[in-house]
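queue> holo job accepted (NG6)
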Amino acid sequence: MKKRYLTLFMAGCALAGARAADTRPNVVLIVADDLGYGDLKCYGAKNVETPAVDSLAKSGVRFTDMHAVAATSTPSRYSLLTGEYAWRKPGTDVAPGDAGMIIRPEQYTMADMFRSAGYATAALGKWHLGLGDKTGTQDWNAPLAATPADLGFDYHYIMAATSDRVPCVFIEQGFVANYDETDSIFVSYRQNYEGEPTGKDNPELLYNLKHSHGHDMSIVNGIGRIGYMKGGGKALWKDENIADSITEKAVNFIESHKDEPFFIYFATNDVHVPRFPHDRFRGKNPMGLRGDAIVQFDWSVGQIMEALKKAGVADNTIVILTSDNGPVVDDGYDDRAEELLNGHSPAGPFRGNKYSSFEGGTAVPFIVSWPGRVPAGQENGALLSQVDIMRSLGALFNARIPKGAAPDSQNYLLTMLGENSDSRTYVPEMSNTHVISVRSGNWKYIEPSDGPAMIPWGPKIETGNSKEPQLYDMSNDKGEKKNVAAKHPEVVKQMQQYVKDARTPRVEKVSR
Ligand code: NG6
Ligand code: CA
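queue> job finished
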């Protein structure tokens, strides 16, 4: 509560400034889910057309060396929205749908930063950072105790976690959207509710998609999920309409806030599992549902660009497009993604996928467009981290960030606008088992670990784990095939120091 008043007060103070400088750009931050470095045509994708994203890239800068902080969603998004490496904060691993809100209300976020500067702010789509006070205690039939509204977002329309996790309902302004008075909602990650079917016991009810591993608990819309839920009635989402519903909210938000600066965090469900896009996006590529989900994602991007044009604000809007982590092909549903790849490489030239320490886990597309300011048609090879997006965007309006907030974020605004190609000294990245790797210059280092070489459940994904330190020269070995650690002990030492630095808690403000 305290924080809300403070934010309001600061927003009030900033308002006069905001009006005087009405030319400050809007920001739309598009974060795809599990979209790989190689999944877009402009990044060399085979078999799938992405005309909207390609034209966004053509209108600005396409970056070739951007990294998510982590190879899974929750820690990656935590770092993006707070400017803090996820490993500093316990409880940031892949969150269940009944996780309590992981970013605490008193923590300063990217959205707080925009709101304090007078921006209208919105979080749309995938959240996956917990809701409510405490894990497992939420009453989904009443307003939730802690929501993105406490983190600087004026408006939210979100999924609590992922579309493969219950509860399968949208939360709008702290309450279940389209709430059905006649069908109360119960959620448990411990046990099923009596008489409720599950994917495990009732496979005949999986009429839309079957699971390949996991995802055999409650059934919603003919698809098995992780976790148990009961009720929901008309509030339950239909997977085929998720892209439409969040895109519509984005278009409406743009339309209704075109006369003031706005910040939209647009986090798509595409291309996460279960991939079940709307009929109109199906069959336009030979890769089946995974390809269709990419086509649907591209459509959402196109709609947003169209809405910005229609509202007359396209020139003064920064659109950033990226992904929360690397791609995964089979992530637990029988959608034939693996067998239909037809030569497509979701991670582009990189080894490994989502979850991995190899680059395929964290190397992500990154496109920045600002037609009124940034010249079109650029490519930029600067080595960057998503943790820097917060302070870089803050630099647009000289944001005053409270002491101790965004401790790992550094200002690379000019690089992100294509005005130079300054690289970060080093970029740390975390696998799903907390192994830390570091990129610096052309080097890539993976710290030794005892973990298995392949992830231990269903999909065939290399973890990047090895008992030996690994060092790769990315200038001639993007695929991380030849470990040259033994040849370059001094480089290994330096990289180990970077890993140590990255792990050391930082409370002081980083300035650059
Ligand atoms: C895994 C899920 C996977 C996906 C992932 C999180 C199983 C077998 N696998 O546990 O399907 O949901 O978590 O993905 O349940 S993320 O992109 O949100 O991090
Ligand atoms: Ca993800």
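queue> The chain is about 20% helix and 15% strand.
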